[in-house]
Amino acid sequence: xxxKISTKLVDKVMYSNYLVKAVENCxxxxxxxxxxxxxxxxxxxxxxxxxxxxxxCVSGLSKRCSSSNHEDTAELIETTMFSNKTxxxxxxxxxxxxxxxxxxxxxxVKQKEAEKAVQExxxxxxxxxxxxxxx
Length: 135
Hints:
Blueprint: E1 7-9, H1 15-34, H2 38-61, E2 63-65, H3 70-77, H4 85-96, H5 99-103, H6 111-131
Antiparallel strand pairs: 1-2
Helix pairs in contact: 1-2, 1-6, 2-3, 2-4, 2-6, 3-4, 4-6
């Protein structure tokens, strides 16, 4: 039995708005990292990844995941026909793993954690752009 993933239909042309959000959040993540604002860098990297995933799914499927479980988003990515879908899905989940810690836990994000999140967000965004032919 196939798992039912909660989705929202979105006009395919709207993928570009999600891509703009991803690019803007990624730029802010890089800037925050350079400023030593590691928490802001990690949070912006996470939101860049979420918007990049939405752009990917909207472009490929005319829908985005509406579930609060980000693993569902990774599974939805895998249903697209893009060539890098498995890598995109794995990179997305790698970035998402820092989300709860960066946004909700009492501890602060360490420099190395922020650097990794930003680097992975940049890599994810590059792959998404490549598959969407937005290079």
